[in-house]
Amino acid sequence: QVQLVESGGGLVQPGGSLRLSCAASGRTFSSYPMGWFRQAPGKERVFVATINWSGISTLYADVVKGRFTISRDNGKNTVYLQMSSLKPEDTAIYYCAAVYRPADGLGPQSPGQYAYWGQGTQVTVSS
Q1: Which of the residues 13, 28, 70, 100 could staple to 49 if both were Cys, CB 3.0 to 4.6 A apart?
Q2: What is the CA angle 55-59-62, rounded to 5?
Q3: For the segment 13-27, what is each residue's pLDDT rounded down to a tens digit?
Q4: Which pLDDT does position 2 carry in this prediction?
Q5: What is the DSSP letter of 94?
Q6: Is the dihedral of CA 19, 24, 30, 36 positive or negative?
Q7: Count of CB atoms situated within 10 Å of the CB of 52
Q8: What string of DSSP letters covers 24-68?
Q9: What 3-state class would DSSP assign to 91?
Q10: What is the pLDDT of residue 34?
């Protein structure tokens, strides 16, 4: 059974940092593009960042570019999201996701094109 488990969320003050982790089990995702999404209360789930299988290529939503960094450790079957200079508007549940099959490029920006999802981890940015 494929599982993606996020961790690392919590309460942080504006300007602070958090590192989210997404550990995969049940399948090796080293050849899959991966993505991070977030969903704020009452809003749709939106794209945050994606990374290709090797970690060489990344893409970010404009609202997090320069503040967030996606990375992966294929030996640990884990993807990370380092978040810095956090703002109250970054408050959301953060989800990691994997696409349906191995691919060379980046993951899509549409959540509907991902096959596997974690349960999410809450990030709250507040003073």
Answers
A1: 70
A2: 150
A3: 999 999 999 999 888
A4: 82
A5: E
A6: negative
A7: 19
A8: EESS--TTS-EEEEEE-TTS--EEEEEE-TTSS-EEE-TTTTTTE
A9: coil
A10: 96
